[in-house]
Amino acid sequence: MPHFNYNSPQDESxxxxxxxxxxxxxxxxxxPPTKQRFAATFRVASRFSFWIQLxxxxxxxxxxxxxxxxxxxxxxxxxxxxGFGIFLAIVxxxxxxxxxxxxxxxxxxxxxxxxxxxxxxxxxxxVIQALRLGLIVSLSGVFVAFLASEISVVAVLAKALAEPQGxxxxxxxxxxxxxxxxxIFSNVNLIGAHLVSTVTSLGLLEWLE
Length: 209
Known about the structure:
Layout: H1 17-28, H2 32-73, H3 80-114, H4 124-162, H5 165-168, H6 178-208
Helix pairs in contact: 2-3, 2-6, 3-4, 3-6, 4-6
């Protein structure tokens, strides 16, 4: 948390324990200038995080929908690892949906901090709790999306190593299809979206604490 300069007379009375204690309390109470400075940064960071997550999440959702439809319309759907990878991608997408909503809550909280009427209603602990919850959700999303990506890559690699693709034409089960690539593409976008939200929450939390 940034330090502040206080202009005080060079008097011995200002070095008393009572004065030092009151000065410490002033720092811990997040004075208005610091609150406004943090609110401005908070609002810009939350807006950036919101739109990046929304864009990457939309691309991931579209890719995942194509992958699911391709899997349902395909003649061969007996691929348990890839199906589990798609399921985890859906879970990661749902987590990202909540995280996008929470980034929007960040923006509302930043507006309240900047407002002279409602700034006093928002405490430092409220902001820390909101950032911590966002960080926990983002880290969970990164883990789920990474696990889904690993499973999808392993499934595709297993197909590629099972037999050469020229011969795999006669064994449709081992053909690498578009849904495999779309699932991996969706997971990569999910990881990127969750990483953006993680960095945003962690940076703001470290600066505030």
